[in-house]
């Protein structure tokens, strides 16, 4: 009888470990398959966010609110870069036009970019680069439709699903990634993964919708260089018809950067071998 109870205890322990092992997908591909059906639905969402970055000598901290539906997005944030306070607004409207407004010392500057005219294949890359480089939205593609976001991560990082956690009462999957060799290369500047600031990333995605809830990045030494976290996420937000409308404020200096971005993207296209070009 004693042996029977010991055996049952062992089986229960083994079963509990086996159950825990099934709490998250075994591979990135399984994760995408699991969330794909829900991820493609046109959720209207809103959230608060906090961001901190130390990519150079001057640290940056930001806090704000964001809302989106499909590829449309609006962000309002207060950012502190060293001692300087900056108010930023970013909108991607229903026509695929990006507006980036920055106010510093009473002056307002607006950068306009027509994402659709840049081409379907380049739109996501331009969108993600805009979010990060302009520091006017979530870095590394958070805020994009889930499958676009995950595709961007998978294109640049070798991803592994490492666990499941809970954030704001929602189950999330945790992915960890190392930058792929050559993923950030340009014709003039081959990528050197030994110097990239985002050598390693950790991503938290909603287990039901695939929505990116948090991202953290570290450099090659393991130093934390970026942290971005959404909170108070509402995946069924009621967004009015004018949520993604934008009109530059009176007196603002508006600069259309579409063509300069197009030239930069063409410059960054991988060079084709001479034989392939001749064909």
- Distance between the amino and carboxyl termini: 80 Å
Question: What coarse outline follows from CA principal-axis ratios?
Answer: globular
Amount of helix? 25-40%
The profile of the biggest β sheet is: 12 strands, mixed
Order of helix and strand elements from N to C terminus: HHEEEEEEHHEEEEEEHH
Query: SS-based structural class?
Result: alpha+beta
Strand content: 35-45%
Unreliably modeled segments: 2-6, 8-21, 120-136, 185-190, 271-279
Summarize the structure.
The protein is an alpha+beta fold and 279 residues long.
What does this entry look like structurally?
By secondary structure, the protein is α+β, with helices and mostly antiparallel strands. 26% of the residues lie in helices and 38% in strands. It contains six helices and twelve strands. A twelve-stranded mixed β-sheet has the order 7-8-9-10-11-1-2-3-4-5-6-12.
Provide the fold topology.
Elements: H1 2-21, H2 28-39, E1 44-53, E2 60-69, E3 72-81, E4 84-92, E5 97-104, E6 107-114, H3 120-133, H4 146-156, E7 157-167, E8 170-179, E9 200-206, E10 212-218, E11 224-234, E12 253-256, H5 258-268, H6 274-278
Parallel strand pairs: 6-12
Antiparallel strand pairs: 1-2, 1-11, 2-3, 3-4, 4-5, 5-6, 7-8, 8-9, 9-10, 10-11
Task: Provide tags for this entry.
single chain; alpha+beta; 12 strands; globular; disordered N terminus
